[in-house]
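Model it.
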Amino acid sequence: MPLGVDPIAENFSQVVIFGANGWMGRSSISIASRLFPKEKMLLIGSRGAHISIDGQDYEIFTMEDSQTKILENSIFLNFAYLRREKINIEGQDAYFEKNSKLTDFALKQVTNRRVRVLINASSGAAQLVEKGLSQDLYGKMKLDSEKVLKSAGDKNDVCVINNRIFSLSGRFINEFENLAISKFISTALDGRVIEITSPLSTRSYVDAEELTNLLFAVGAECKSLDFDSAGEETTIENLAILCGSLLNTEVRISKEVTAPSHYVGDTTIFDNLISKYKLKPSSLQSQILYTATALKSKKTTREG
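Modeled.
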């Protein structure tokens, strides 16, 4: 890793990472830096910032400051979105307005044809809404963004790739998000018992940097595509037991067992792409250990 798609840097005037402040954005910076020279990388976030990744310093521009910096014939990765947990903090109206503004920014790059390829990070939550299994605002907005960006791409001859992300691991993971793998690892690192209430629920995990690597490979072909990030499927119980075993902590199933949920994508296209590009996704065990090393380092830095 990375795939080293040749000649992706020569095919595009620029790589634009929208949502660079977030942990998926940071994962994509790590991969993009090995595929593009720094001068061909434009990082955009909800707020301006200076960050360092793998020993390299980067500036993140705001949407307002980046308006004149986006070049024609760019590949644009859209990771900018408020997490579901923000609904209760922001309120539904403010949450809707802020996420709509983010989607509109990405949409503008398609309608003015400044980008050649737009890779849109959607969510498995969109699948639940599509199947009538949920009316969650986050999922509904993700589904709507898929449709509006795809439609705009078709009308403006821009390649739009919608990737529904289900469950991720990786060194840039946000430990404070409501994600099973980060909660289990953080609990173990704190020396506490991992407690689960939905042991039969299923998830499928893929490393965020490895997924970004795949997205660049798909984007390099400049062909529109919708696909799910599948990854290694497991039950919450097996995930907890594996985390407990690898990180030496006890696992306990709560008596308040909740109904299981099946939160995994369609593996067909994902598996075909992995085979096509001869990639070897990390095992779940490797993903846990890699993520745990990163979270332990963050914890040590914070406490030091």
